[in-house]
Amino acid sequence: MPRLSDSMEEGTILQWLVTEGAAVSRGDELAEIETDKATMTYEADSDGLVHLVAREGDTLAVGTPIAVLLSDGEEAPVRHQQATGRQGEVAAQPAAAVTTAAAASPRAAAADRPRSSPLARRVARAHDVELAALTGSGPGGRIVRADVEAYVREHANGNGAAPAAPAAPAPDGNRGTVTRIEPTRTQTVIARRMAESRSTIPAFDVSVEADVTALLALRAELKQAGRVASVNDFVVKAAALTLREHPRANGAWRDGGFETYERVNIGIAVAADDALIVPTIFDADRKPVTAIAEDARALAAKVRDGAITPPELSGGTFTVSNLGMFGVTAFNAVINPGQAAILAVGAAIDRVVLDGGVPAVRKVMTLTLSSDHRILYGADAAALLAALRERLEHPLALLS
Questions:
Q1: Distances from the Cα of 242 to the Cαs of 203, 257, 322, 388, in angstroms?
Q2: Closest among 290, 333, 330 to 210, alpha carbons compared
Q3: CA–CA separation, 232 vs 67, rounded Å?
Q4: What domains are defined for the chain?
Q5: What is the mean pLDDT of each run of 10 residues along the chain (400 residues)?
Q6: Element (H, E) at 319
Q7: Measured in whole angstroms, how far is the alpha carbon of residue 78 from the centre of its chain?
Q8: Which DSSP string corresponds to 197-221?
Q9: How far, in Å, CA of 291 to CA of 399, rounded?
Q10: How far apart are CA 235 and CA 241, in angstroms?
Q11: Distances from the Cα of 214 to the Cαs of 23, 51, 210, 230, 291, in angstroms?
Q12: Is 394 a known active-site residue?
């Protein structure tokens, strides 16, 4: 089982993309693996004949054997330990016979399989949709989740057979019908990490209001010039520059001491399929806001298509979470373990203020910094937010 993210401890094999005895080359896709952050495709790192050790659905610790790549003439082991569950129980399993038909190259099999993202394949399996019937809208004709969902909607609207409805659960006392939903692996890990954060990190929250009237006007000018950047992109840039001045906020409390990081890598929270994924914008302090905007759009699209890669989910040193697009004006976010703080961004709302003694309507946004009190104190958090507010209220410097 490969380590596909910084925090990954175990993974679940969702689907083998090769058969027992298949000949593979370096770079061929072997399996879809669900990690703590996303579903990813694992590729062969060498040539050989595949001997499968783990089964689809097995959840295994990182480093546990899941398959063996045999060289020409090498026989599969007669018996091999195979994991059977989360607790690391093992049972000896006889090796499957290698047939001539199974030894065909996976590249030939892949030629018959339409190109599709892991998330698209998962949605297709859930709705019993044949991918061969779909036309992909992704890069190079790749089938993405939106293609599968569009197909399902079309057939549900009378142009084909609608997906079978799930069986209704039984009533449960005076609560009426109770439906139990098993969380995905990603949701389970998120739950564990958030509980870990709340129980092990002594967090405190500090808020400030920033006048973003000038920022919104600048953003409108950029949009007219064809340079699109969201409010969140400006916040990411401003936060990255501010972290340079406050290095402890760009670090963490680890093993009884302070740990600070050379690079400023901002994680951006992206909602996708009942999960929260945090891809990373690397070296955000060195990029203009328009470059940050391009990175953020590309990463968000990959998250929603299930095409995000392990390197794009790793290395974050600070996180920005924005719910302003939902009309939320202020909230407190949960710190990601391994970081010192997280910034929660609310919506920009109209506020009547005195401007030179004259009432005026300004756009005001609430910023809330949740910090680990072991590494940041109240004055540290207040100073960081003051510097961040100053940058957002004078946004021209964020363009460079």
A1: 20, 22, 18, 6
A2: 330
A3: 43
A4: 10-159 (2.40.50.100), 202-399 (3.30.559.10)
A5: 78 88 89 77 88 88 90 69 42 39 44 67 80 77 80 70 52 77 79 89 96 95 91 97 96 92 96 85 95 95 84 92 95 94 97 89 97 96 97 92
A6: strand 318-322
A7: 40
A8: HHHH--EEEEEEEEE-HHHHHHHHH
A9: 9
A10: 10
A11: 61, 62, 11, 14, 20
A12: no
Instruction: Give φ, ψ of 124 to 5 degrees.
Output: -65, -40
Q: Determine the residue type at 88.
A: G
Q: Which amino acid is at 382?
A: A
Contact present, 134 and 147 (Cβ < 8 Å):
yes
Q: Which secondary structure element, helix H or strand E, spans residue 232, and what is its range? A: helix 231-245
- Identify the active-site residue in 51, 127, 246, 373: 373
Cβ–Cβ < 8 Å for 241, 266: no
Tokens standing for residue 363: 């756009």
Distance between CA atoms of residues 394 and 136, nearest Å? 44
Q: How many CA atoms lie within 13 A of 72 on its CB side?
A: 1
How far, in Å, are 120, 162, 194 from residue 165 at the CA level? 20, 9, 33
Q: How far, in whole angstroms, is CA 350 from its chain's centroid?
A: 33
Please name the amino acid found at residue 164. A
Cα distance between residue 187 and residue 274, in whole Å:
8
Ramachandran area for residue 305 (φ above 0: left; ψ -120 to 50: alpha; else beta): alpha
| DSSP run (H or E) holding 385 | helix 378-393
